[in-house]
Specification:
Blueprint (H helix, E strand, L loop, with lengths): L2 H14 L13 H8 L1 E3 L7 E5 L15 E3 L2 E3 L5 E12 L2 E12 L6 E14 L2 E11 L4 E12 L12 H4 L3 E3 L3 E13 L2 E9 L11 E11 L4 E11 L2 E12 L7 E2 L3 E5 L3 E5 L2 E6 L2 E10 L3 E11 L3 E10 L3 H14 L5 H12 L4 E11 L4 E10 L4 H4 L7 E3 L2 E11 L3 E12 L14 E13 L6 E12 L12 E12 L2 E3 L2 E17 L10 E13 L1 E7 L2 E16 L37 E14 L5 E12 L26 E8 L4 E9 L6 E13 L2 E10 L16 E11 L4 E10 L4 E12 L3 E15 L2 E17 L3 E5 L4 H4 L15
Antiparallel strand pairs: 1-2, 2-10, 3-5, 4-5, 5-6, 6-7, 7-8, 8-9, 9-11, 11-12, 12-13, 13-14, 14-15, 16-19, 17-18, 18-20, 19-20, 20-21, 21-22, 22-23, 23-24, 24-26, 25-26, 26-27, 27-28, 28-29, 29-30, 30-32, 31-32, 32-33, 33-35, 34-35, 35-36, 36-37, 37-38, 38-39, 39-40, 40-41, 41-42, 42-43, ...
């Protein structure tokens, strides 16, 4: 069925079926409804008022579930037959109170016990946070059946928060404000056969205030059941009215009245994305058990076909986890893409292009993804973690950008399993780690496959001795490395085992103003390597002594700045490292890269990550840190640090590649880049964070990031950032090397415009390539009983396959309406992940009540 036909049928249903709904009983005047419900108008909250609940008579008897309490001002009492009570009649039973002007009490002719009550005149049935006003009522004491006629009602619903009010007997004995979300309406008849299950005939239902002109939406239905035991409501032959105008009809509607989970269909989600076309999602929620559930979402994607997604969540006695599976049986657009790329690249002689083309043609039209996250804490010592991600082909991530998979980089999917032990002296990690590397043909870079650890065992021990002050430690690492063949690359990468044992001794010396820790250790490493290249040994090894001394001096003073008292510290740091040179070019490089220089990295002995390289060193790192601590609050106002390494010889141990080799100018400099960091808490809501790296030879900035953050609460967030990395951007054909510096701004915000209106957005721009990365803007309206929002945006997805200078964007539209007490209805994919910034997380509180 086409989209136009679907909309026409939907409009026909919305326009015709409301006319078929049965007429309701005449409504009371609005001011009379307010009075009977106890509505008090005020300007102190967004609803414009609250419900005032009057004291309960004989409140203590409400908690006595098996006791019937009856009182009246006057009456005719009979031991048999019918008794008549008048004045003010109060009946208390099963946590409810019924008050009326007159009551007829009927007794069982055999037992003489009360069997039923008929009430008339100002009948009021009350529970805590629930009120029903009726003209007449019948109460069967044997079956606990209650029925009331010609009623108005209100009852609390707890919506998305799930936080219920705890009411004590003392609270019930005095007037009480009910200001959380409550539903109200009118009905021709009310009945209750079981506790907390209410049935209403020919009724209205809304959570909006009952004042004139304030009821934004209302449900009119022939029958509504509110089941507070299950937390669900059911309406039959229901129509939705907005400002009194009927806009939608449904013969059956199931909706939540609190935060409990319930099996059933969730509201459908239509939408449109550039890579999917128009789509319609029909999620089904399955509440399988208290500790696990499942959401099954079949979707129709205009350009691709049918997709089925399954999200399974579970809780165990030791942890939690979830799996997410997505399958597209026959992706039509992917089939067309394969044929197009075959025509564009069939004459290419590039071996990488040809290899990627073969992978593309071998990929099936049935596509999918799988993700599994699991975290457990078995006891105080043992924990485990699983993070496994897999896709069917090299193009899945770029075609389905809204899929939430743990991508380490743009083309690397993490596959990790880990078992950890932490004791007083020992720590152990058993790890299996790999990556699925994607090789799309329509991207200009060649993505090399990464090594997998199958497995890795890390065992670390540390034993401090009280008598001598010495600390004995040992770090062990046993790993097996394997790697898959990179498509188009004939090179056989080395594989094999690596065993590293690193024992050592340190002597921590601490005084009030000085700490000094000399340390000596030895790195003993042995390899068992396969696929060795000519001239390289199969069992290389390495033995290196490592000596370092770290020292920090601590001085402080009291100082007054701008009329406020602060405690200022000055912490000079000294770190000397000596490691003799040992040629390590015959060792394979399995998991080692050059660490990015930061202030903290100045005070580590090895500039490499991993164990395949340990640098030679004869150097001193000097740094200084100062802190300003508020005398009154004890909070850190300012932290600033600056440091640099001074080398006594050139660095000879390198990765021996184009970026890092003995002839690289950086390895011949007598000084490292100057590294600094600043954290400034301007006031309780504003903060500034900055990091910079200055090249000592050119005095230019090689790396910097600055962020200014404002956060007064969840609704007021502003994050402004700038990031610069020399030679850190994607090289675009046709641009010279000076334009390959990453220069990027990032602005994100969420901010109320008025009490009910707010705006949200994110703007990330690549100044080097003169394009934006993310551009989103949205408006949100959140009132007392309903909320609506719309977000428009474009997200950068890559370069066009046939024109590397043209940028591609995925356009998105996201709209949602939430009727509080019924649930949300929307289109598009939730943009919360894109709205998140690195500095602060966008807090999605749409349609929630506080």
């Amino acid at each position: 069925m086409s989209l136009k036909k679907y909309l026409c049928i939907l409009l026909l249903i919305m326009g015709v079926f409301p006319l078929l709904s049965n007429a309701l009983t005449p409504s009371l005047a609005q001011d009379e409804i307010e009075r009977q419900l106890g509505w008090i108008q005020t300007d102190m909250n967004r609803c414009g008022g609250y419900y005032l609940e009057s004291p309960f008579t004989y409140a203590e008897s409400l908690s006595k579930k098996n006791l019937i309490s009856l009182s009246s001002n006057q009456g005719l009492f009979s031991l048999h037959g019918t008794s008549i009570s008048q004045g003010k009649v109060t009946i208390t039973r099963l946590g409810q109170q019924i008050v009326a002007s007159k009551a007829y009490l009927y007794r069982d002719p055999v037992t003489g016990k009360l069997s039923a009550v008929d009430l008339s005149g100002n009948v009021i049935l009350r529970e805590p946070d629930t009120l029903i006003v009726a003209k007449s009522a019948h109460y069967d004491l044997k079956s606990s059946l209650r029925s009331l006629n010609d009623i108005i009602f209100r009852t609390a619903v707890y919506g998305n928060t799930g936080v219920k009010t705890v009411v004590t007997n003392q609270d019930l004995q005095k007037s009480r404000q009910v200001d959380h979300l409550s539903a109200w309406g009118q009905a021709a008849e009310f009945s209750q056969s079981q506790p907390k299950i209410y049935e209403l005939q020919q009724t209205t239902y809304s959570t909006c205030p009952p004042g004139p002109g304030t009821c934004a939406w209302q449900i009119k239905a022939s029958h509504i059941v509110l089941n507070k035991t299950t937390g669900r409501g059911v309406a039959t032959h229901a129509r939705l009215l907005v400002k009194g105008v009927p806009i939608f009809y449904t013969p059956y509607f199931n909706f939540p009245i609190d935060a409990r989970r319930q099996t059933g269909f969730l509201p459908p989600r239509p939408g449109r994305e550039g890579l999917l076309g128009y789509y319609l999602k029909l999620p089904f929620y399955w509440n399988m058990a208290p500790n696990y559930d499942m959401t099954i979402t079949p979707s129709y994607l205009q350009q691709r076909g049918v997709r089925v997604e399954d999200l399974f969540r579970y809780l165990t006695a030791t942890g939690r986890g979830n799996t997410n599976i997505s399958i597209i049986p026959n992706d039509r657009k992917f089939s067309d893409f394969k044929n197009k790329e075959l025509g564009n690249n069939q004459n290419s002689t590039n071996p990488f292009v040809q290899a990627e083309l073969r992978r593309l043609l071998n990929a099936g039209d049935t596509r999918g993804s799988f993700s599994w996250q699991d975290n457990n804490r078995f006891n105080e010592h043992w924990t485990s973690a699983i993070d496994y991600n897999l896709v069917s082909d090299d193009y899945y991530l770029q075609d389905f950008s809204s899929v939430n998979l743990n991508a380490v980089t743009q083309n690397q999917l993490l596959q990790l399993g880990e078992l950890d032990y932490k004791g007083e002296y020992w720590k152990s990690i058993i790890r299996i780690q790999g990556y699925q590397t994607l090789h799309p043909i329509d991207q200009q870079h060649i993505f090399q496959n990464s090594y997998t650890r199958l497995p890795q065992w890390v065992l670390e021990g540390s034993y401090p001795t009280e008598k001598t002050g010495l600390t004995f430690f040992i770090n062990n690492d046993l790993s097996r490395f394997d790697i898959r063949h990179t498509p188009g690359d004939p090179t056989k990468m080395p594989v094999g085992n690596r065993f590293n044992v690193q024992p050592g001794i340190s002597l921590p010396l601490n005084w009030p103003y000085l700490s000094l820790t000399p340390r000596i250790q030895s790195a003993l490493t042995k390899y068992d390597v396969g696929n060795v290249q000519n001239g390289f040994p199969g069992n290389p090894g390495r033995a290196l002594p490592i000596f370092d001394v770290s020292s920090t001096l601590y001085v402080d003073r009291n100082i007054n700045l701008f009329g406020k008292g602060y405690h200022q510290t000055l912490e000079p740091q000294f770190y000397y490292t000596y490691i003799p040179f040992k040629n390590q070019n015959q060792l394979p490089v399995f998991d080692t890269t050059v660490n990015m220089l930061t202030y903290d990295q100045l005070f580590t002995y090895n500039r490499f990550s991993g164990l395949d390289r340990i640098n030679d060193a004869n150097q001193i790192a000097l740094g200084i840190t100062t802190r300003f601590i508020d005398d009154l609050s004890g909070t850190e106002k300012i932290k600033a640090a600056l440091g640099q390494i001074f080398y006594f010889r050139n660095r000879k141990v390198t990765l021996d590649n184009a970026v890092d080799n003995p002839d690289t100018p950086e390895n011949k400099q007598p000084r490292s880049p100057l590294s600094g960091t600043l954290i400034y808490s301007i006031n309780p809501v504003w903060s500034l964070t900055a990091n910079l790296i200055i090249n000592p030879k050119t005095n230019n900035l090689d790396n910097q990031n600055v962020s200014i953050n404002y956060s007064s609460d969840e609704k007021h967030l502003v994050n402004l950032g700038y990031n610069f990395v020399r030679n850190g951007d994607i090289i675009v054909p046709g641009r010279n090397s000076s334009e390959n510096n990453l220069s990027q701004t990032d602005l994100s915000f969420t901010w109320p415009v008025t009490r009910d209106w707010a705006m949200v957005g994110r703007w990330t721009e690549n100044l080097n390539q003169k394009r934006f990365q993310n551009l989103l803007f949205g408006l949100q309206y959140d009132s007392c009983c309903w909320a609506a929002r719309m977000v428009l945006g474009e997200v950068f997805t890559g370069l066009q396959p046939n024109n590397k200078n043209i940028f591609q964007y995925n356009k998105m539209v996201y709209a949602e309406v939430a009727l509080k007490g019924l649930g949300p209805f929307g289109t598009g994919n939730d943009p919360s992940q894109i709205l998140n910034s690195n500095a602060a997380v966008y807090s999605d509180n749409f349609g929630r009540d506080f």
